[in-house]
Amino acid sequence: MRRVLFASGILVLLVVVVVTAQPPVAPPLTPPAPSVAPPGFPPSVVPPGAQGDPVPPAPPKPFPGVPGAPSAPMGTPSVSAPVAAAEAPLSKFTHIETFPQNTQFAVRGSLMAAEWLAKMGQPHGRFLQGYLPALRQPMSGDHDLRQAQAALAMAQAAKFSGDQKHAAIASQAVLALLASTKVDANDPNSRAPVQMSFVCNRVGFAALVALAIVELPNPSDKLLDDAERLCAFLRTQLRADGSVHYADNPADDPTKFDPAGFNEYPGLALHALAASNRVRPADWKKDAVKKGVAYYHTAFRAKPHPALVATVTPAATELYLQTKSNEAATAVFEMNDWLCALQITGNDQRTPQWAGGFRTVADGRTTDAPPSATDTGRYIQSLACAYHLTRVTGDLTHEEKYRPALTFAVQFLYGLQFLETNTRHFEDNFRAKMLMGAFHLSPTDGNLRIDASASAITGLLRFLSCGAER
Fold first, then answer.
1. What does 23-35 look like in DSSP terms, one character per residue?
2. What would the 3-class secondary structure string for 147-207 be?
3. Which of 117, 331, 373, 431 has the most CB atoms less than 10 A away?
4. What is the tens place of the pLDDT at every residue in 23-42?
5. What is the per-residue pLDDT across 202-217, written as a single tens digit (0 to 9) for each?
6. Which position has the higher pLDDT, 387 or 81?
């Protein structure tokens, strides 16, 4: 009997050991979704940021913020209903399903990005600089130029949608930025930034704030007066040859301490003067823009750069629309023809996965650096301005060139936006509050910064009004 009991005990022990030694059974895995390119993209190319996130082939339903649109999918941030839908430009997209899918992307992308940017707004009027999704913490650092870009995009988005909340946020942001300027003690009609240009370039900052004021849905006379004073400050930076001096000391050579600024700040200043001339016409503004466009067109021919194209083109387009200057149209077409040559194609041997984006230029040579959302938004704005001119001038040759370039650029940019499909690995509340609608910096950088989404909004909204959206 003892032997039987002993043997039974050994048998039970062996069973227990065998059972406990078995590896745990893993839950069934859901196969990853295949990579699918959005309609219009080469099948072998998927926009960056969309790997593994298929885009349905069927046209999407009307998007949030479009009059008459159904409720958005889970995780999509809500967009306030337009308060003046019948008057806002958004109203023409009421039946969004009748527009090309690229246009649907642009409408949805701009509305969702504007809602994300609004959530970045803080009580004192400034925006949160950015966010690091992997660390779930705000991005350190701040810069007034990025704040001004965000204010400009917020103003443009509010004008487009008629959203009262966004208009209020934009107005508050403009007031916060104006607090960083002061009226010149020697000239009450001039208002200058208080910071030195080595901290924040004064010409670029003044230009962006003036543009933001002009782009507000209904700017008050007081704000328009402040925009005029900022333009008066910009006037003091104009030179007789048409160039814009973007250094603080008149005797300094700005290209020595900030050579990259040559491609950025003068074009912004000319754009601000041209846009201001629509609201408060003045002969000196028109003359300054005309001379400036001619100067920087010549500079482009000597040393072309995509940033110079992106900043001067809006000013030259405004100049043509106001004066019908053939020289302005020639400058726009020549510069944007060159910009088109920088666009990455689907059959590019080096980086086909970035099709639709644009190569960067350093020291006169193109590089394979990842295209950024900030730059792509600027280039879309530039090409949209150029396309608008083709419609006005009846230039069918350039129209046929710019339309596909815009199409691929919008598709690439849309691939950099955080949407429901490419954020499923984040917790629902976190992605809805902090990620949805934002454009991350590049195909290889998933961090968020306000200037990336601001530039995307500006570019997409310009695309939606240039004629290529139809």
1. PPPPPPPPPPPPP
2. HHHHHHHHHHHHHHHCCHHHHHHHHHHHHHHHCCEEEECCEEEEEEECCCCCCCCHHHHHH
3. 373
4. 333 333 333 333 333 333 33
5. 999 999 999 999 999 9
6. 387
